[in-house]
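dumping this here so i dont lose it
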């Protein structure tokens, strides 16, 4: 604010300049108005006073001449009718003198000349006209003519001279008034020229001032800002001119400093990001190398390791069959441990290979009907369900995009787990259902088994993670890890519903087809408007399709503890591995 208070502001300078110009123009306008009024008065005097005075003077002379002519005619003829012009001329003289006195109120010299003419006319009438008229009436025309002499003529010539003097005075007054009109007109023209000069000078001063205090500082500020905009963020912006421009330059410089600091931070962040990217690239290269090593390991595990493992298992089984009972009890126990370990190692290697192949050996996504998949799962788990007296049901399931073998493996693992982790005194029941949530299908697998404690809800999806000993529940502990990997490969997520009050409910999501999402959104208003009681009326044939599909229990006698004959030794049913967690 200190910079803003130093010197006159631009507003103050412009207001001061405009104020001075306004005062000058107002003064000139007042003077011009006064002169214009005076000039108009002078013109009125010329047109309405001096002009009519000249006419009245001529009219006065005419009236006096009529009187003199009438007196001469009466003296010649002694006819009373010849005196009519005399009386009329006298009346006209009086009227004319009265009118001239009104017009010459402001002209005392003219009034004086009028009085002179009036006095001489009165003297002529008393000395000449009236005696001639009286003598002619009394003594006749001859006597009257005898009174008209050269002296009387000279006396009337004096009236002529007085009238001429009056006219000269009127002309002089008229000329003076005309001179005043010319003078005031010239002064008005001069004042107008001065006003124009004031406007021109004020405009020039305003333009020069704006150039010096506005345009130049603004151009300098623009050039400095342009340098900053072109990338020179270290250039200090300094203002000039009025305090407003200096304050604006300070604000712009503060903004430049802020931008420079942020650019430094961005530059540092970019350097850090580049460093992180380089580290990530190194890690990616390391992961690529590690994946190649894992693939090599998988190849070795599937070919090189399994061959000696099968040989060990085969010879151990031969020892068990040939020398069973021939050695002591401890030797038979050792051989049984060796056979079991070899078989478990085979199952672990097979499960590990199956886990590593998910997403790497792909057949491509297609539209998969999960109802058909559940039919295949029911066929694969039929032997295990007969053994456990289990019941498998499912609602009408959607069609999704995915790989059918992987989805079959996914649901087979969930159903197998539900059958395996059952309560001893309760026949297993497994139900699979689906519902559309936003743009995903949420699929649930619910059973009435032993359940899962909430604190272990995340641990069960870890590879080879077991919550029970292998003697209680057989398996390698990789089944739910495979489930999680298949679900994530298809773009979904899987979790345990910890709110389930009985058994275990595992839920997972799969992306829905766009047409299913559009149909669901289009049906939402209809579902809100349709009464609940109308559902049965519209059921006809669809109710049978939407009802739960049931694969009933198939009891074949009391439950047995050993593996059924229909199950393969390695835990597979119908060609699909039943790997359970």
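and the seq i came up w/
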């Amino acid at each position: 604010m200190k910079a803003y208070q130093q010197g006159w502001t631009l507003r103050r300078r412009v207001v001061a300049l405009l104020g001075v110009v306004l005062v000058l123009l107002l003064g000139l306008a007042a003077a011009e108005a006064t002169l214009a009024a005076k000039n108009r008065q002078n013109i009125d005097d010329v047109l309405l006073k001096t002009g009519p005075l000249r006419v009245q003077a001529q009219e006065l002379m005419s009236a006096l001449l009529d009187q003199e002519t009438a007196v001469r005619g009466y003296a010649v003829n002694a006819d009373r009718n010849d005196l009519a012009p005399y009386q009329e001329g006298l009346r006209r003289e009086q009227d004319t003198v009265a009118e001239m006195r009104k017009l010459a109120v402001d002209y005392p010299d003219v009034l004086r000349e009028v009085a002179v003419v009036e006095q001489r006319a009165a003297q002529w009438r008393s000395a000449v006209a009236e005696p001639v008229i009286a003598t002619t009436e009394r003594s006749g025309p001859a006597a009257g003519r005898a009174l008209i002499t050269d002296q009387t003529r000279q006396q009337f010539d004096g009236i002529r001279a007085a009238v001429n003097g009056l006219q000269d005075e009127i002309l002089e007054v008229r000329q003076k008034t005309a001179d005043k009109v010319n003078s005031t007109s010239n002064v008005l023209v001069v004042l107008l020229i001065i006003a124009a000069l004031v406007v021109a000078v004020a405009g020039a001063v305003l333009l020069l001032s704006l150039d010096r205090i506005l345009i130049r500082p603004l151009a300098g500020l623009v050039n400095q800002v342009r340098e900053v905009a072109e990338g020179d963020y270290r250039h200090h912006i300094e203002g000039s001119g009025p305090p407003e421009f200096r304050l604006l330059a300070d604000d712009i410089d503060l903004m430049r400093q802020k931008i420079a600091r942020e650019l430094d931070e961005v530059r540092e962040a970019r350097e850090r990001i580049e460093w992180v990217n380089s580290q990530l690239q190194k890690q990616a290269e390391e992961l690529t190398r590690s994946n190649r090593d894992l693939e090599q390991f998988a190849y070795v595990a599937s070919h090189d390791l399994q061959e000696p493992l099968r040989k060990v298992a085969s010879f151990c089984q031969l020892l068990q069959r040939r020398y069973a009972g021939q050695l002591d009890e401890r030797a038979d126990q050792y051989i049984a441990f060796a056979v079991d370990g070899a078989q478990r190692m085979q199952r672990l290697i097979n499960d590990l290979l199956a886990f590593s192949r998910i997403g790497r050996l792909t057949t491509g996504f297609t539209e998969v009907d999960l109802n058909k998949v559940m039919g295949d799962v029911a066929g694969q788990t039929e032997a295990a369900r007969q053994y456990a007296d289990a019941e498998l049901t499912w609602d009408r399931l959607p069609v999704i995009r995915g790989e059918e073998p992987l989805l079959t493996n996914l649901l087979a693992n969930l159903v197998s787990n539900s059958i395996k982790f059952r309560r001893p005194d309760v026949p297993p029941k497994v139900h699979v259902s689906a519902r559309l949530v936003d743009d995903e299908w949420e699929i649930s697998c619910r059973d009435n088994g032993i359940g899962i404690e909430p604190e272990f809800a995340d641990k069960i999806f870890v590879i080879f993670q077991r919550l029970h000993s292998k003697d209680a529940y057989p398996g390698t502990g990789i089944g739910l890890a495979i489930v999680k990997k298949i679900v994530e490969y298809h773009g979904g997520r899987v979790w345990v519903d910890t709110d389930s009050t009985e058994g275990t409910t595992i839920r997972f999501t799969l992306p829905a087809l766009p047409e299913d999402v559009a149909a669901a959104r289009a049906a939402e208003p209809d579902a809100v408007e349709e009464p609940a009681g109308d559902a049965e009326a519209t059921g006809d044939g669809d109710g049978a399709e939407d009802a739960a599909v049931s694969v009933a229990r198939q009891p074949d006698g009391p439950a047995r503890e050993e593996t059924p004959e229909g199950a393969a030794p390695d835990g597979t049913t119908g060609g699909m591995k039943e790997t359970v967690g």
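Confidence is low (pLDDT under 50) at residues 1-5, 531-548, 552-581.
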